[in-house]
Amino acid sequence: MDIKINLLPEELRPRPLIATKTLLLILLIVALVGGGVALGLAKNNADSDRASSEDRIAAIDKEISAIQSDAEAVALTKSVSNLKAMKKAYNAFIASRIGWGDALGSVNARRSSGVTITTLTQTGDSLEVKGTAPGYSAVTSYGRVLDSYEGFVLTGVPSLKGSTFSLTLKVAPGGGR
Question: Does the model's pTM come out above 0.70?
């Protein structure tokens, strides 16, 4: 068993350079000063950003008022707006246009075997297909094929009287392509 006996008096014993409490106090003060400096810098950056944004807004407001007071610029702006509206309407017209030749070709190309088309009648955006078929299953198969095609929607139930059938299709805008 070892017993340590310190024969040096308290005044002569070795001590750390800085007491633990003093070191903690110094670190706390440094952290508080550093945090204060960081907050001050962040506030200055935010203030300068706000000031530059306000300057840009004021410059843009001046430009807007100059453009609004210039008759030629107002006329050009109105012309551009009208042209954009006309282009949008034209694009909508082109998209809604139905290529009836393509639609008729698609109806004929998707015929089931044994199905013969005798009459195609167009009313508005609808197409009535009449013809002959060997049975109702051939007519319904033909109707399903047309309905699954993106250009057509089968409206109603196909009818078959004897060997004569009738299908009504709604042709989608741009349909039949």
Answer: no
